[in-house]
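Minutes, project check-in
Item: structure for the 351-residue chain
Input as provided by the requester:
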Amino acid sequence: MTLPQAVEAIRPTDRACLERARRRLDRLTKPVGSLGRLEDLAACYVGITGEEQPAIPRAAVFTFAADHGVVDEGVSAYPRTVTAQMVLNFLRSGAGVNVLASHVGAEVRVVDIGVAHEFGPLPGLLHRKVAHGTRNFLREPAMTREQAIYAIEIGVNLAVEATSEGLGLLGTGDMGIGNTTASAAITAVMTGESVVAVTGRGTGIDEAGWAHKVAVIEQALSNRRPDAADPLDILAKVGGFEIAGLAGLILGGAACRRPVVLDGFIAGAAAMIAVGLQPLCCEYLIASHLSVERGHQAILKKLGLRPLFDLDLRLGEGTGACLAISLIHGAIKIFTGMATFDEAGVSERLS
């Protein structure tokens, strides 16, 4: 599926299904609304998928990995080589996302979309490399517009393939040293907030390192001048291949009527790109958590999304998405497993 085809295929979620789901939730053996946002999650899932008696969906977290040329400017506490090393850790099931995915019964699908390393054939690794990392966007555009589209279409088609395999929930994950710098640049452009307001400490840089990171992003935006009205221009000039892949996964999931569970800051930046390309895909997004990264709150405000929890997470990888998948599964079980007042023979509230 091409990017234009995905954009064209996305339709509003099913409001009639959503309302029928809400009516059923109101008839369950509990005070109306007493399960709060679990009820909202259940109704949201029904409205997105059109499944009025849904089974517990199979879930997968797609962890896209890519390197960033802007790391050459000293914006990260870790060297670029960590990206490839963490890909190998994912494949050995040694990372946080692996542990939490196993805990909630989800798969982890690791995608090399732009790591500056040749892995060779490795079981479990999805080889979708666009290039060996982006270019240093302080000095030149991160990628060409054609590469941006190509990387988005990789994500679109991974979502289409996953849906054809029967997956019902798509989680977003990322790995890429330097990707909070790219995400902060995207966030500043797309929210209109200052670079200072949306730039965090990423992997844990100190105060001087943070000030340098802010200065690099500010100068890069001055040099590149991305068009705030053109998501592809923003992505090409200051983005990352994993951000593009995640944007594509969101678009592809929406085109296939599957909920997409956002992780944190990087996934949020990707979501803004996707929503910029097709606003309707926002109806298919579930925000897992509020990241410690300071720009994430601005992203969620821009998208109009309310996170499910705030646990001071900032790891990425898809860890927050995993925890949200567990909540979504619980919400669906409530919806399909609880009895109504009529079914249980329980007296209702006195009018």
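Outcome recorded: The mean pLDDT is 96.
No further action items on this chain.
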